[in-house]
Amino acid sequence: MIRLPTAASAANAPRLSNHLLASTALLTAVLAALSAAPAQAQTPQALPAVPVETETAPAATAPEKGLSRPLGTGTLDASEIASRKIASPDAAALLRSLPGVSLYSAGGFSSLPALNGLADDRVRVQVDGMPMTAACANHMNAPLSYADPAVIGAIEAIAGVTPVSRGGDSIAGTVSVTSKPAVYAQPGEPIHGEGSLSTVYRSNGNGTTLSGTATAATERFSLRYSGAWSRADDYEDGNGDKVRSTLYNVQNHALSASARKDGHEITLSGGYQYSPYSGFANQRMDMTLNRGTTLNGRYKGEYDWGTLDGRAFWQRTVHAMNFLHDKGGADRGGMPMNTDSHEMGYAVSAEVPLSAQDTLRVGNELVRYRIDDWWPPVAGAAMMSPLTFVNLNDARRDRLGTFAEWEKRWTPAWTSLLGVRNDVVWMENGPVQPYSWADPIRTGMMGMGMGMANPDAAAATAFNRGDRSKTDVNVDATALLRFAPSASERYELGFARKTRSPNLYERFAWGTGGMSSTMIGWYGDANGYVGNPDLKPETAYTVGATAAWQDAEAKRWSVKLTPYYSHVENFIDADRIGTLSNGFVQLRFANHTAALYGINAEGRSIVHQDERLGEFTVGAVVSYVRGRNLDTGRNLYHIMPLNGTIDFGHRLGDWSSVLEFQMVGRKSLVDSGRNEPETPSYALVNLRTSYVWGNLRADVGIENLFDAHYYLPLGGVDYGDFRASGNQQPIGALAGMGRSFNLGLTMAF
C-alpha cells in the first residue's frame, strides 16, 4: 500500500495512557483488596459428554441470572441451534426467531442484526467475549460471519434497556454468541475423546456445509478443534428466477485449549477464516477475499469474595472487494478495494457478593482498532488512475470503558439494579489521496478525451487541511426494577441512557465524487454516502417494561410482553446532497433527533403430553417497531414492519419436529430520502424434523414449503439484477429465497 506522510499520530498516546491509568486505578485497588483473601478451593464437577444434541421443547423461561439478564432477553441454547442450523450457514439467521430481532441482508453468511429497529454498529456484537469491528466500507465481514453455527453453544440478544455490564458504545443492545463449553474427562477416566462430523445439503443454490469437531481431554485439560466449510451458488426466488450475486464460499477453523483447577479455568483459542468470494446482491461491490485471524485468551476464577473474569484478544482482517461475474467481473481490473485492520484489547470484570442481598459488578476494557483502506489504480481507466485512492490512512479508533453496577434484592419480591459507565473514544485518520490531484478538471475519461470535474481532489485537499482527530467522552446509565410477587408472575421496569460514537466511515469517508461515495455504505441501497467529521455521538434514552407470566413450575407455559420507547439525540441519519445517475442519490451523514417505539411479545405452551403420543407445543413471537426522524418527519430507514412467527412442535422420544409459520406485514413506511422500496406482505411455511439413532442424527427440512415469492423488507435493492440488465431495468427490492429442501447428517464419536 502507498503510505502518505502523516502528522505525529502519537499525540493521542499520552491522553490514552492517562485515562487508562486513571480509570483502572480504582478497579485495581478493589480487586487487589478482594484477592488478598485465599482462594476458596472448589472442585468442579466433571461434565458428562453428550454425543448428539437432541431437540427438546424450549424451556418456558431462561435461567435466572439476576437483573444482568433482563426479562426481555432472547436466548437460544445448543439444542435449538442444532435444529435451525440446517437452514443457513449464517449465524445471524439463528437470531430470526428471537423477539425484537430482524436482519439486514448482507451476503449469504454475513447478515447484520437489528434490535428494535437499530442495526449494525448500534448493536454490540460479541463472539466469545470479543468485540469485532467490520473492516469494510460495506460491512461485508460482519462480526457474526466469524461464528459458525456448528460450534455455537448459546446465543443471547438483549434489546433495548441493557445493563452497563453487558456493553458500551452501543444504543440498541447486545448480541452475545458463545462457543460450546470445554468438555473434560469424568473422574477416573484417563483420556476422554469425542467429536462429530456433519454435512448439510441445501437444494436452493446447491449449498453444502461440512463441519467437524474433535476433543481430547483429561480431568484438568481439554483440547478442541472445530472447522466448517460452506459454499453455495446463486439462489432462486419463488418464481424460479435466479437472484444474482448471492453465491458464497467460506471456511472457519478454531483451536482451543482449556485447563481448570479448584474453581479456576483458563482458555486459549485461535481462529482463522478464509473466504475467496461472496456475492452481495444489494451492493455495487462483491467480496473477493477475506482472511481473518483471531487470538483470544480468557481466565475465570472463583474466589471466596466473588468471581474474576478476564480476557485479552487480538484480530487481524485482510479484506478485498471487486466485481464478481454477475456485475461484470474483474478481468480488466474492475475496481479493486482493499482493507487491512488490526484490533486488540482486553476486558476484566469482577462480580462481588457484598452480602446476601447485594452484588457489585465492576469492570474495565480497552479496544484498540487500526485500519488502512486503499483502492489501487486500474491501468487504462482514467477515472481510477494514476494514483492509489487512499480512503482511510492508518485510521484509529480506540475506546476505554469502565463500569460499576450494583444489584440489590430488597425483599423476596423486589430487586433493583443501578449502573453507570464511562467510555472514552479517540478517533483519527491520516492524510488521504484521490486517484488524481488534477483539479478542478481532469481529461482523458476512459481514453475518450472527455473532460469531467474531479470533486475528490478538492475534497481530499479540504480533508487534509481540516481536523482529522476527534475525542468523545460518553456516559451510560441503567436502572432496572423487578417485582416478582409469586412464582407465576414477574414485572420489570427499566431506563437506560446509552451512547455510541460514530464509526470511522461515518466520520472520515471523505470522497464526494459520484463513484467514490457509492463505494461507502452498508445499507444495501446502492446510494452514495459521504462522511462528516463533525458528527456527535448518538445518545439514546430508552424506557422499557416487561410483564412475564408462567406456570408455577416454569415448565408448561409462559407469556411475555415488552413495550419500549427510545428517544435518540444526535441520531446519525443521512441528508440528501445530490443526485447520481440512474436515479440514485448522494447523502451525507448528519445528526438528527429520532424516536422509536414498539412492542415485542412471545409465548409458549405445552398443549398435550403423554407417553404414547409424545409432547405437543405451540409458540409465538410478534414484534412491531416504528421509527421516525423528528427533525425531518421522515420514516427511519430499514425499519421492519409488523412480523411474527408461530411454531407447532412435536417430540416423541428421539424424534422431534416443528412446523413454522412466518408472517411479515406490508412495508409502506419507507425513507423517501433514500428511495427505499416498499415491499408487500408475505407468509412462509417452514418444516423441520430430526431423528437420533444412538450417535447418529438426521435432519430434514423444507424452507418456504409452498415456494412463495416475496421481497425482503430489509433486503435493500436488487443491484445484481440491475447491473446484469445493463442498468436499464427499473431497480426493485431484493427477492427472498424460494423453496429449499435441506438435508443434514451428524455422526458423533
How would you sum up this structure, described in words?
The chain contains 6 helices and 33 strands. With 749 residues, the protein is mainly beta. The chain has one domain: Maltoporin, Chain A, CATH 2.40.170. It has a 22-stranded antiparallel barrel. A 5-stranded mixed sheet has the order 1-7-8-5-6. β29 and β30 form a beta hairpin. The chain is globular. InterPro entries: Beta-barrel_TonB (IPR000531), Beta-barrel_TonB_sf (IPR036942), Plug_dom (IPR012910), Plug_dom_sf (IPR037066), TonB-dep_rcpt-like (IPR039426), TonB_rcpt_CS (IPR010917). It comes from Azospirillum formosense.
Task: Write the topology of this structure.
Layout lengths: L11 H24 L38 E3 L1 H7 L16 E4 L7 E4 L2 E2 L3 E5 L2 E2 L20 E8 L13 E7 L12 E11 L4 E11 L3 E12 L15 E14 L2 E15 L7 E18 L2 E17 L14 E17 L4 E18 L13 E21 L4 E15 L12 E5 L4 E4 L1 H11 L3 E18 L2 E12 L3 H5 L5 H5 L9 E3 L7 E13 L6 E23 L5 E26 L3 E16 L13 E10 L2 E10 L17 E12 L2 E8 L15 H6 L15 E9 L1
Membrane topology: Multi-pass membrane protein
Protein name: TonB-dependent receptor
Pfam family, one: TonB_dep_Rec_b-barrel
